[in-house]
Design brief:
This is Phosphoribosylamine--glycine ligase. By secondary structure, the chain is α+β, with helices and mostly antiparallel strands. Helix content is 29%, strand content 28%. It starts with a strand and ends in a 10-residue tail after the last strand. Bound molecules: adenosine monophosphate and glycine.
Length: 423
């Protein structure tokens, strides 16, 4: 008998997690809370329970004979959902509240890296507008201003001029654009180089790395426009050499896992290292305490071993096995609502998308239309992601755009250059 798993979350990342779990023999059924109606097309069962309603989720696990839980997004992790499940005697994969600070507080993450000599940009933390402005003026541009706390990837300004940095500080301290998240600000040096994402399964000091990937954070082609949660990704990233990846594992992943153990906040879950390959080697720009989105949608299709068996082994103190496809490539492009991420206009009808075995559609912000059984409508910024695998990145890219370019995407948009940096 296979296991029953509950995945918490509702995005394309959780769709990819649930779909990959169902592909393995060890898992028999996957529920997703709250999930989205697009996931149901892949046999994932959804329950409308909110990811913040921990008590109802605990009841749901008990009532449905769920064996273990996978927590997708950062918000419930930061709220201590894993601690709550543990108190109820339920196994949940993800960091507890104390360990999730590695994502929840940029100040915590920066101090951890400083104490353990983990390479990152030099920085200062401020809770006072005048001192922050003085620092920017003294330091000059380019310079990076980050609101402390969670701001859904939108609390960061990479300022190419001093004026732009000062404006960002006013937005945080005077306009309170990020609410409480802006009570503190981290100002750091600008790092030059290509970005890549290195995700690992972590259990205390032990870790198992995944293939690297590259996200595209800006809204429009050519890395123009505002920062978003991510508009597309691909894996592997051939322009980042194996030597750089090895160095990142030795100087970043390994000491980070060890540092969390040494500081009494051992981390179990997915550790996401957002890195820049600088002329001085890889450096951390951010940690996340969970899978990246859209990175997960291009990395998990490369997993060859049974995903559920791997997580289950991690939860049970056993040795997990994770084996990856090392030959091919995967690429995914996000279809977003018009105006995202600034003035998002939702409600666009989602066209039916038919794909072959090399491709998959992962749904995110979609809802059922009130009338019409099978009609989905866009309900938030990122609507869905189309992913394809191929022998090369170019091949995967051709397949994805072959699908997207043939759709009626009225009321939505997507980038046309995902993967271009690798070609
Ligand atoms: P974060 O939310 O910290 O990942 O930042 C969002 C984006 O801002 C990153 O994906 C980078 O593109 C950019 N960024 C953040 N920190 C730096 C930095 N120190 N130097 C250059 N770019 C950065
Ligand atoms: N794609 C970046 C993130 O998940 O934060």
């Amino acid at each position: 008998m296979g296991q029953k798993v509950l995945v918490i979350g509702s995005g394309a990342r959780e769709h990819a997690v649930a779909h990959t779990l169902l592909k393995g023999d060890s898992v028999e059924a996957v529920y997703c809370s709250p999930g989205n109606p697009g996931m149901e097309r892949d046999g994932i069962r959804t329950s409308q329970l909110a990811q913040t309603n921990h008590a109802a989720l605990i009841d749901f696990v008990r009532e449905n004979g769920i064996d273990w839980v996978f927590v997708g997004p950062e918000v419930p992790l930061m709220e201590g959902i894993v601690d709550g499940f543990a108190e109820a005697g339920i196994k949940a994969f993800g960091p507890n509240k104390a360990a999730a600070q590695i994502e929840g507080s940029k100040d915590f993450a920066k101090r951890l890296m400083e104490r353990h000599n983990i390479p990152t940009a030099a920085y200062e933390t401020f809770d006072d507008l005048d001192r922050a402005k003085q620092y920017v003026t003294d330091h000059g541009a380019p310079i990076v201003v980050k609101a402390d706390g969670l701001a859904a990837g939108k609390g960061v300004t990479v300022a190419m001029s001093v004026d732009e940095a000062l404006e960002a500080l006013d937005e945080i301290f005077v306009d309170h654009r990020f609410g409480l998240a802006g009570a503190k600000v981290v100002i750091e040096d600008y790092l030059e180089g290509q970005e890549f994402s290195l995700m690992s399964f972590v259990r205390g000091a032990e870790f198992w790395t995944m293939p690297i990937s590259q996200d595209h954070k800006r809204a429009y082609d050519g890395d123009e426009g505002p920062n978003t949660g991510g508009m597309g990704a691909y894996s592997p990233v051939p322009q980042i050499g194996q030597d750089v990846v090895r160095e990142a594992i030795e100087t970043i992943v390994k000491p980070t896992a060890q540092a969390m153990v040494d500081e009494g906040v051992p981390f179990t879950g997915i550790l996401y290292a957002g890195l820049i390959a600088t002329a001085d080697g890889p450096k951390v720009i951010e940690y996340n305490a969970r899978f990246g989105d859209p990175e997960t949608e291009v990395v998990l299709p490369r997993l060859e071993s049974d995903f559920g068996a791997g997580i289950s082994a991690l939860l049970n103190g056993e040795q997990p096995e994770f084996t990856w496809n090392t030959e091919g490539a995967t690429l995914g492009v996000v279809l977003a609502s018009e105006g995202y991420p600034v003035d998002t206009v939702t409600g666009a009808p989602i066209p039916d998308i038919t794909v072959d075995d090399d491709s998959h559609v992962y749904y995110a912000g979609v809802a059922n239309a009130e009338h019409g059984e099978h009609q989905l409508l866009a309900s938030s910024g990122r609507v869905l992601l189309v992913e394809s695998s191929g022998d090369t990145i170019e091949d995967a890219q051709r397949k994805v755009y072959g699908i997207l370019d043939g759709l009626d995407t009225t009321g939505m948009f997507y980038r046309h250059d995902i993967g271009a940096k690798a070609l």
